[in-house]
Amino acid sequence: MKISDTIADFIEEMLKDMGGTAELQRSELATRFKCVPSQINYVISTRFSPEHGYIVESRRGGGGFIRISRVEMDSELMIMHTVNAIGSYLDMSTCVALVANLRQSGVISETEARLILSATGNRALRPAQPQDRDFLRASILKQILINIV
To answer: Strand, helix or coil at 23?
Structure first.
């Protein structure tokens, strides 16, 4: 198992134990996992982003901390939040993260997630010019989610 996975699993376990919000200290985690603090930053920015359903607050300095909160909301609100977070362009990796978050939260089914990823994937968008695919992907995902609501 990669160190990133180990750190992410530890943070997720803390979130479960603490009722969805955990305060962490970068330096303590780095010491615990025998890594540099930038590794902790990497895990937090890639695994605990708003696209994944988290709010991250950070305060630097001697008494600094990182507060991670799992966003809890009903299905309709979560879909609308996702639609608003998409913007005009959406790369495939962010699309996958958004769909996985909706699936993990129980907002969409496994079948719906597979269909969405199929409709927004590079294979489906192959007829479009490469520079237009992220724009089309964003538009398609927004329309699908709006119609689910």
So the answer is: strand
Structure token pair of residue 42:
């990497």
- The CATH homologous superfamily to which domain 3-70 belongs is Transcriptional regulator CtsR, winged HTH domain (3.30.56.130)
Over the chain, what is the mean pLDDT?
89
The token pair that represents 78 in the structure block: 């979560």
Residue spans in the chain of domains classed CATH 3.30.56.130: 3-70
What are the start and end residues of each CATH 1.10.1200 domain in the chain? 75-148
State yes or no: pLDDT of 84 exceeds 90: no
- Looking at domain 75-148, its CATH class is mainly alpha
Beta-strand runs (E) in the chain: 21-24, 54-59, 65-70
Find tokens 């192959």 and name the residue.
126
**DSSP per-residue string spanning 52-90:** GTEEEEEE-STT-EEEEEE----HHHHHHHHHHHH-S--
**What's the confidence (pLDDT) of residue 62?**
62
CB 4 within 8 A of CB 42: yes
- pLDDT of 8 reads 92
> What is the pTM (predicted TM-score) of this model?
0.63
pLDDT > 90: percent of the chain? 52
